[in-house]
């Protein structure tokens, strides 16, 4: 899937840069271009991508201080400048646009929903948000910001690919080390998903293409991405168990959003040397994901790639019923003393409730 990345806020700019760097390092060519947008001048200076500083008349390049209402207002007033920076970057070759943002800060959580809304009005390609949830230890302000931002952006974007910081942080890591590790892990996962069907080594039996990614995300709402890999045997038949085990690990322990195994749709991608990918293993993995997710819309295919390993990528669409999402939204509501007391019959209704103020 050829895409243009727009990183909003500090975390968004860093992750968008990491994604572009991974894509170039691997030679995939799936990331056509990347732009970073922020209200803090210092956060843009070290990024190896085109940058746009917004809100200079209101915050003078010093950021919005975690105020995502101000972040939304600044993006609203300066969105013309951001859209102008995309001229000539979102070409006819682009098959999607990804807005990348940390949902807990001010510029990213406030600006991402506004920008996603503007982009969907202008461009005739899917607009997705790659959103990062704050960890439980990141403070009440970040929880409230992320709850409000997620509620809003889930409505404005075609889908939100959600990353939970707590799923990637390792014990004993400093905060900066933890964020760097998260960026590297997500860049690899999302980078491989974007590259599937774009730049392949050899010819697989059933190569995944962009339409399958788009169709998996077509239901909208929240999506998650799982990943796991293992050493490959030269003989495809010997890799059936490896394909099954990596697929299980990708869904059960390797997702960007833990415990998100109930889904409306899914895509199983097995990456590796074409001669080492067992057709029987791919089909078994697809059927297992059907059973695990309860979805009949499970696609599967190959990603031919020069590597001594086999990797399973599992994209899950429509995971709003995930316990992780519901517990996070509850945490956000509690942070503003508006705890939910009754269970919801339809998890999608959380995006239409009044428990958290809408940003737009």
UniProtKB/TrEMBL annotation:
<keyword id="KW-0131">Cell cycle</keyword>
<comment type="function">
    <text>Involved in cell shape control.</text>
</comment>
<feature type="binding site">
    <location>
        <position position="138"/>
    </location>
    <ligand>
        <name>GTP</name>
    </ligand>
</feature>
<dbReference type="GO" id="GO:0005525">
    <property type="term" value="F:GTP binding"/>
</dbReference>
<keyword id="KW-0547">Nucleotide-binding</keyword>
<feature type="binding site">
    <location>
        <position position="165"/>
    </location>
    <ligand>
        <name>GTP</name>
    </ligand>
</feature>
<keyword id="KW-0963">Cytoplasm</keyword>
<keyword id="KW-0132">Cell division</keyword>
<feature type="compositionally biased region" description="Basic and acidic residues">
    <location>
        <begin position="332"/>
        <end position="354"/>
    </location>
</feature>
<dbReference type="InterPro" id="IPR048737">
    <property type="entry name" value="CetZ_C"/>
</dbReference>
<dbReference type="GO" id="GO:0051301">
    <property type="term" value="P:cell division"/>
</dbReference>
<dbReference type="GO" id="GO:0005737">
    <property type="term" value="C:cytoplasm"/>
</dbReference>
<keyword id="KW-0133">Cell shape</keyword>
<dbReference type="GO" id="GO:0003924">
    <property type="term" value="F:GTPase activity"/>
</dbReference>
<dbReference type="InterPro" id="IPR036525">
    <property type="entry name" value="Tubulin/FtsZ_GTPase_sf"/>
</dbReference>
<dbReference type="GO" id="GO:0032153">
    <property type="term" value="C:cell division site"/>
</dbReference>
<feature type="binding site">
    <location>
        <begin position="10"/>
        <end position="14"/>
    </location>
    <ligand>
        <name>GTP</name>
    </ligand>
</feature>
<feature type="binding site">
    <location>
        <begin position="106"/>
        <end position="108"/>
    </location>
    <ligand>
        <name>GTP</name>
    </ligand>
</feature>
<feature type="binding site">
    <location>
        <position position="183"/>
    </location>
    <ligand>
        <name>GTP</name>
    </ligand>
</feature>
<dbReference type="InterPro" id="IPR037103">
    <property type="entry name" value="Tubulin/FtsZ-like_C"/>
</dbReference>
<dbReference type="InterPro" id="IPR045061">
    <property type="entry name" value="FtsZ/CetZ"/>
</dbReference>
<comment type="similarity">
    <text>Belongs to the CetZ family.</text>
</comment>
<dbReference type="Pfam" id="PF00091">
    <property type="entry name" value="Tubulin"/>
</dbReference>
<protein>
    <recommendedName>
        <fullName>Tubulin-like protein CetZ</fullName>
    </recommendedName>
</protein>
<dbReference type="InterPro" id="IPR003008">
    <property type="entry name" value="Tubulin_FtsZ_GTPase"/>
</dbReference>
<dbReference type="GO" id="GO:0008360">
    <property type="term" value="P:regulation of cell shape"/>
</dbReference>
<keyword id="KW-0342">GTP-binding</keyword>
<feature type="domain" description="Tubulin/FtsZ GTPase">
    <location>
        <begin position="2"/>
        <end position="202"/>
    </location>
</feature>
<dbReference type="InterPro" id="IPR032907">
    <property type="entry name" value="CetZ"/>
</dbReference>
<feature type="region of interest" description="Disordered">
    <location>
        <begin position="332"/>
        <end position="360"/>
    </location>
</feature>
<dbReference type="Pfam" id="PF21011">
    <property type="entry name" value="CetZ_C"/>
</dbReference>
């Amino acid at each position: 899937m050829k895409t243009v990345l727009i990183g909003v806020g500090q975390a968004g700019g860093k992750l968008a840069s990491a994604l572009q760097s991974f894509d170039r390092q691997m030679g995939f060519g799936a990331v056509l271009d990347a732009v970073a947008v922020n209200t803090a001048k210092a956060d843009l200076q070290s990024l190896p991508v085109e940058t746009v500083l917004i809100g200079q008349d209101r915050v003078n390049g010093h950021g919005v201080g975690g105020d995502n209402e101000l972040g939304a207002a600044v993006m609203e007033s300066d969105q013309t400048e951001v859209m102008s920076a995309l001229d000539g970057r979102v070409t006819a070759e682009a098959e999607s646009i990804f807005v990348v943002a940390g949902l807990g800060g001010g510029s990213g959580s406030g600006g991402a929903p506004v920008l996603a809304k503007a982009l969907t009005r202008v461009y005739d390609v899917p607009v997705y948000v790659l959103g990062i949830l704050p960890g439980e230890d990141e403070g009440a302000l970040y929880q409230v910001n992320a709850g409000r931002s997620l509620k809003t952006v889930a409505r404005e974007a075609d889908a939100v690919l959600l990353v939970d910081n707590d799923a990637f942080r390792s014990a004993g890591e400093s905060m900066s080390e933890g964020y760097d590790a998260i960026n590297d892990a997500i860049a690899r996962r999302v980078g491989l998903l974007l590259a599937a069907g774009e730049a392949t080594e050899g010819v697989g039996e059933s190569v995944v293409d962009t339409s399958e990614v788009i169709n998996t995300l077509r239901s909208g709402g929240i999506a998650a991405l799982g990943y796991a890999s293992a050493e490959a045997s030269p003989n495809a038949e010997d890799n059936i168990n490896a394909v099954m085990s990596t697929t299980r690990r990708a869904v059960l322990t390797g997702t960007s959003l833990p415990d998100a195994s109930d889904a409306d749709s899914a895509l199983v991608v097995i990456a590796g040397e074409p001669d080492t990918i067992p057709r029987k293993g791919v089909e078994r993995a697809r059927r297992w994901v059907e059973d695990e997710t309860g979805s009949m819309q499970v696609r599967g295919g190959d990603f031919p790639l020069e590597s001594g390993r086999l990797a399973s990528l599992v994209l899950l669409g429509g995971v709003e019923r995930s316990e992780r999402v519901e517990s996070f939204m509850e945490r956000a509501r509690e942070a503003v003393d508006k705890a939910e007391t009754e269970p919801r019959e339809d998890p999608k209704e959380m995006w239409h409730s009044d428990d958290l103020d809408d940003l737009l």
